[in-house]
Amino acid sequence: MDEHYKHLLLAFEEAELARQEGTFPIGAVIVDRRGSVISRGRNRVFSGCDTTAHAEVDAIRRAGNHMLQLENKRFIADNGLTLYTTCEPCPMCTGTIVLSMIKKVVWAANDADIGAFKIFKDGLTALPIFNQLLNDIEVVAAPYRDLEIRQRKLLAEWNISRGYVDTHWDNELA
Questions:
Q1: Distance of alpha carbon 161 from alpha carbon 152, whole angstroms
Q2: Catalytic annotation, pick one of 56, 71, 148, 157
Q3: pTM for the model
């Protein structure tokens, strides 16, 4: 099993926990350049009553000591971190990833509705410094069909449980 797949499966463990806690089933993990997991995160929007508690942000909050040099108040620019998430990051999470100096992002499922990483990466932002930082991040988008289907099923089930009968998540399950 390759490293991306292995780490995405760990992110799915977090997504399952989020689902059990009654919130969006999205999970994330951050690994260092040696492949060691340094933090885990999951969506806690409803379980934590916090609209900013997305999986990626949760994982980033838990990895601060790998991103910041507190003694001289600087970011660790070459931190060698990779964030794995079950779903393409939204605009808020994309901004958080960029400003955290994470250098690689891998996700299991693309998100046509609120996913923003690819849109931002394609240069549709008017902030030159943001574009420069984005261009430094390597992206691996939905490399495994089985994991993309798994995430789409989780989110389709979640939305259906909330009363939505048609969601974009069930469009590509076949």
A1: 14
A2: 56
A3: 0.88
> Distance (Å, rounded) from C-alpha 94 to C-alpha 72?
26
**Residue 56 annotated in active site:** yes
- Each residue's pLDDT, cut to its tens digit, for the chain (174 residues) gives 799 999 999 999 999 999 999 999 999 999 999 999 999 999 999 999 999 999 999 999 999 999 999 998 999 988 999 999 999 999 999 999 999 999 999 999 999 888 888 877 776 555 677 777 888 889 999 999 999 999 999 999 998 898 888 777 776 655
Report how far apart, in Å, the C-alpha atoms of 98 and of each of 20, 60, 94 are.
Answer: 29, 11, 6
CB burial readout 69-100, b (16+ within 10 A) else e: eeeeeeeeeebebbbbbbbbbbeebbbbbbeb
How many Å is the maximal CA-CA distance in the chain? 52
